[in-house]
Amino acid sequence: MGGLPPRPREDPRPLKGVWRSLGYAWEGVLYAWRVQRNFRLEAYLALLALGLALWLEVNPVPVLLVSALVLSLELMNTALEALADLVSPVFHPLVKRAKDTAAAAVLLASFFALLVGLYLLLPPLLGRFGLS
Ligand SMILES: Nc1ncnc2c1ncn2[C@@H]1O[C@H](COP(=O)(O)OP(=O)(O)OP(=O)(O)O)[C@@H](O)[C@H]1O
């Protein structure tokens, strides 16, 4: 395990600290990408939805916002799972509550993202194929 980084006020080069923080955050993204199949699936779906929005000339901002919400919640879920496994590697009802609730947050956001995607993209998509 690596040592802890210097505390912000003790760091003689604060800007270097910002880059270091970005590096740690990127490590988190790579970790989630490696171990979480759902994170990869959600990232691919977000790219697909963004590509469709651009192709259909639909405002891509809502797609970006809901994608950011789902992916961020998946990262938080991954973080919570790691902590829960550290605290209680064996079955504990409270860990079950915590993990299930964190997973529910991702599920809920994904459901609403799907609704936003369908509402925004389906009508112009059907129009492109002459089905509207
Ligand atoms: N230590 C534990 N104590 C109690 N229940 C647990 C524990 N670990 C896992 N569970 C239960 O199993 C479910 C799945 O947990 P797990 O950590 O495997 O996540 P997951 O849903 O498979 O997520 P992912 O596939 O994203 O890793 C949890 O939602 C919870 O209900």
UniProtKB/TrEMBL annotation:
<dbReference type="GO" id="GO:0008654">
    <property type="term" value="P:phospholipid biosynthetic process"/>
</dbReference>
<feature type="binding site">
    <location>
        <position position="24"/>
    </location>
    <ligand>
        <name>ATP</name>
    </ligand>
</feature>
<keyword id="KW-0594">Phospholipid biosynthesis</keyword>
<feature type="transmembrane region" description="Helical">
    <location>
        <begin position="39"/>
        <end position="56"/>
    </location>
</feature>
<dbReference type="GO" id="GO:0016301">
    <property type="term" value="F:kinase activity"/>
</dbReference>
<dbReference type="GO" id="GO:0005524">
    <property type="term" value="F:ATP binding"/>
</dbReference>
<feature type="binding site">
    <location>
        <begin position="55"/>
        <end position="58"/>
    </location>
    <ligand>
        <name>substrate</name>
    </ligand>
</feature>
<feature type="binding site">
    <location>
        <begin position="99"/>
        <end position="100"/>
    </location>
    <ligand>
        <name>ATP</name>
    </ligand>
</feature>
<keyword id="KW-0444">Lipid biosynthesis</keyword>
<dbReference type="InterPro" id="IPR033717">
    <property type="entry name" value="UDPK"/>
</dbReference>
<dbReference type="GO" id="GO:0046872">
    <property type="term" value="F:metal ion binding"/>
</dbReference>
<keyword id="KW-0547">Nucleotide-binding</keyword>
<keyword id="KW-0479">Metal-binding</keyword>
<keyword id="KW-1133">Transmembrane helix</keyword>
<dbReference type="Pfam" id="PF01219">
    <property type="entry name" value="DAGK_prokar"/>
</dbReference>
<feature type="binding site">
    <location>
        <position position="81"/>
    </location>
    <ligand>
        <name>a divalent metal cation</name>
    </ligand>
</feature>
<comment type="similarity">
    <text>Belongs to the bacterial diacylglycerol kinase family.</text>
</comment>
<keyword id="KW-0443">Lipid metabolism</keyword>
<feature type="transmembrane region" description="Helical">
    <location>
        <begin position="101"/>
        <end position="122"/>
    </location>
</feature>
<keyword id="KW-0812">Transmembrane</keyword>
<keyword id="KW-0067">ATP-binding</keyword>
<keyword id="KW-1003">Cell membrane</keyword>
<feature type="binding site">
    <location>
        <position position="74"/>
    </location>
    <ligand>
        <name>substrate</name>
    </ligand>
</feature>
<keyword id="KW-0808">Transferase</keyword>
<feature type="active site" description="Proton acceptor">
    <location>
        <position position="74"/>
    </location>
</feature>
<keyword id="KW-0418">Kinase</keyword>
<dbReference type="GO" id="GO:0005886">
    <property type="term" value="C:plasma membrane"/>
</dbReference>
<protein>
    <submittedName>
        <fullName>Diacylglycerol kinase</fullName>
    </submittedName>
</protein>
<keyword id="KW-0472">Membrane</keyword>
<dbReference type="InterPro" id="IPR036945">
    <property type="entry name" value="DAGK_sf"/>
</dbReference>
<keyword id="KW-0460">Magnesium</keyword>
<feature type="binding site">
    <location>
        <position position="81"/>
    </location>
    <ligand>
        <name>ATP</name>
    </ligand>
</feature>
<dbReference type="InterPro" id="IPR000829">
    <property type="entry name" value="DAGK"/>
</dbReference>
<keyword id="KW-1208">Phospholipid metabolism</keyword>
